[in-house]
């Protein structure tokens, strides 16, 4: 997939339930023009009334403080069984975007949360639409904590750039930097290696859980289809799909 030198259509809106939903369910002519066209586009909101995470999770964000946006892209060469490549692209692009701001390493908590240390700075929600055996459209929702100084929800470990740096960051410049990084990694020949090299807790012994059972294991790899590979204390390699295993933070 190649996105180099594309002209992104960028739409700024004040408020919406979620930017992913705005792209998938909008009825206005402007939305239809975006979703029916072939150019990639971005919708950016100052505030989401029902920001979404995976499953039933929500995303806390103070109005006008963070980057809340969704990308709509139209892949032409990604088979449905390789759709994890999109998750790799977005995650690696976010790491590349954030790393110049920080002294700490920016990492990817499988499958696609972005962490600094043990704290979550960014979440991603990807929704793909298939045509035959290929991906026709992909909507990529991103919530990036930028200038929020305090989090009041019961989320266990959020962090923002402001909390890490002690000063505000230009959100528009950050968005442009991400889009540039995303274009570059879309044609990277080493994408899967960079994704794995940036994995949170890779190669170290930590506690995981399957249901109510906890066990120690090393994170060894992520397979091409996105399944996580752990090696437990007995040396057994165990493979998990998303939501089948829990990181104990």
Notable characteristics:
single chain; 249 residues; seven-stranded mixed beta sheet; five-stranded antiparallel beta sheet; globular
What fraction, in percent, of the residue positions are helical? 10-25%
Strand content: 25-35%
Gap between N and C termini: 35 Å
Number of helices: 6
Unreliable spans: none
Structural class: alpha+beta
Gyration radius (Cα, Å) is 18 Å
Briefly characterize the structure.
The chain is of the alpha+beta class and 249 residues long.
Task: Explain this structure.
The longest helix has 15 residues, at 84-98. This protein has 249 residues and is α+β, with helices and mostly antiparallel strands. It starts with 8 loop residues before the first strand and ends with a strand. It is built from six helices and twelve strands. The strands form two sheets. A seven-stranded mixed beta sheet has the order 1-2-3-7-6-5-4, sandwiched between helices. Helix content is 23%, strand content 33%.
Q: What's the layout of helices and strands?
A:
Layout: E1 9-16, H1 19-25, H2 29-36, E2 41-48, E3 67-73, H3 84-98, E4 106-109, E5 113-116, E6 119-131, E7 134-144, H4 161-165, H5 171-185, H6 191-197, E8 205-210, E9 213-222, E10 228-232, E11 237-240, E12 246-247
Helix pairs in contact: 3-5, 3-6
